[in-house]
Amino acid sequence: MHEVLQKFFSPHSFRVALPDVWTGFQLNLKLMVLSEILVLILALAIAVVRGLPGRGAAPFRALAIFYTDIFRGTPLILVAFLVGFGLPGLNMHVVSSQSNFVYGVIALTLVYTAYVTEVYRAGIESVHPSQRMAARSLGLSYWQAMRYVVIPQAVRRVIPPLLNDFVGLQKDTALVTVIGVAEAAQQAQQFSQNNYNFTSYVVAAVFFILLTIPLARFTDHLIALRERRERAQAT
Amino acid sequence: MSFVDVKNVSKSFGELRVLRDVDLAVEEHGVVCLIGASGSGKSTLLRCLNLLERVDEGEIVVDGQTITNGHVDVNDLRRKIGIVFQAYNLFPHMTVLDNVTLAPTKVRGVSRREARDRARDLLQRIGLADKAQEFPDRLSGGQQQRVAIARALAMEPKLMLLDEITSALDPQLVAEVLQLVRELAESGMTMILATHEMSFAKEVADKVCFLDQGVICEEGSPEQIFSAPTQARTREFLARVIEAGRL
Fold it and tell me: How far apart are the C-alpha atoms of A209 and B188, rounded to whole Å?
């Protein structure tokens, strides 16, 4: 028992590992924020493309479906390898000369955009067709109806599942350690190997948990709020 | 020439023929009521008029413009034709005021301030000035439907299509909506109404059309249709309506 406490929960190691792991964790935070912003924008664009009407848009729809199929199906760690090692290996201008951090953002964005596209799509499809019809009957174009009537309602509805996916993304920022981003997990691993003590992993875990809990509670709050409003509407 | 001319229009959904060789003329400032059982084609006819549905055969001319030849700018046409639906279809994420100003600002390019001023005037007119900042779910069905009418009027349409706009309302809320429609008729708005409110049709309509299985079975003045219908099917329909206590 003492052995376990010493190896995993040593107060001394906790204090010593803290500064390095915190430095690494700041990279995780940057990875999160950048990827989340990119994902929010790209996923919405792809979800809209997937919903385009008409035969002319068929190739674009197919492309959007192809993208989500590929990147939802491929494990993030493989995408990270492909981007982090593959792109530099191409020896191409700009593409091959980015930092590991940038490749990390690209890998995370590619994978999570695929998930979030589906979330947005569910939201867009949940807006009743009569809303679009009402907008169109006022003379709004397809795009105006999407922009002012459909998407605002869709986005409001999908905020809870969206935040859920972001909890996943926040944790998965640790995975880009495999392409050599010196983030929290990597810092923890280094400490652990040098000191033969695993407390540093616990430190990193604590950071992630502390970040996730408020987001999870906030999501719960939003869901409860909506349920209350829907119940009030039903009566 | 009439303001609206429907000539030989047919429309099918798959195997089902919803409209068969329909002819209808509506004069400017005229009020036409379409009556008939559910599924007789009233709503489809209204939707064809603002191209929410495409006709399979025939021709529709509105304000001298042929709208069924595929060359018409749909969005442009819809600015001239307002439609109000049975289920109101207000935008739930916008305030009453924003519901009314959305189309004028985005489609007609009216300035925000001007649109708001006009929207307030409209809301005043329909007795809902104090609800401008409310969201639709805070309003009664009758109030929502009046806002939906105001939203359509904000585009200053030349023709209003009202698709069973009182059918989803509690009986005690019907009167306030009908009163608004009555005022519109008096102001000279050209209107086509699909309705189950027979006494109202009798009161406001210049012309009543009885639809049965996608055909205009009989049309005439309200007096003629309601007091001396010539067609057997019209008589049957009205007999059932009277039996139900709706006339």
Answer: 67
CA B129 from centroid of its chain's CA atoms: 24
Predicted confidence (pLDDT) per residue in B162-212, tens digit: 999 998 888 888 998 999 999 999 999 999 999 999 989 999 999 999 999
* Nearest CA-CA distance, residue B229 and chain A, Å: 35
CA–CA dist A134, B88 (Å, integer): 9
Residue tagged 């001298």 (tokens): B64
Interface test with B, best of A127, A131, A137 (most B CBs within 10 A): A137
Give the model confidence (pLDDT) of A79-135 as tens digits: 999 999 999 888 888 888 889 999 999 999 999 999 999 999 999 999 999 999 999
Q: Are B184 and B114 in contact (CB under 8 A)?
A: no
The answer to whether residues B6 and B46 touch, using CB atoms and an 8 Å cutoff, is no
User: Which residue in the set A139, A149, A152 is minimally distant from B79, CB to CB?
Assistant: A139
> CA-CA distance, A57 to B139, in Å (whole number)?
40
Nearest CB to A139 within list B78, B85, B87: B78
Contact criterion met (CB below 8 Å) for A46 and A68:
yes
Place of tokens 């191209």: B51
Number of Cβ pairs closer than 8 Å across A and B? Answer: 56
B158 contact partners, CB below 8 Å, separation of at least 6: B3, B63, B80, B81, B190
Nearest to B102 among A131, A141, A148 (CB): A148
Predicted ipTM? 0.90
β-pairing, B81-84 vs B190-194, is unpaired
- Which chain B residues are closer than 8 Å to A152 by Cβ? 93
- Note whether B107 contacts A135, CB cutoff 8 Å: no
Is residue B112 within 8 angstroms of chain A, CB to CB? no
Q: A8, A147, A3, A168: which is closest to B102 by C-alpha? A: A147
Long-range contact list for A143-147, CB < 8 A, 24+ apart? A144/B106, A144/B107, A146/A48
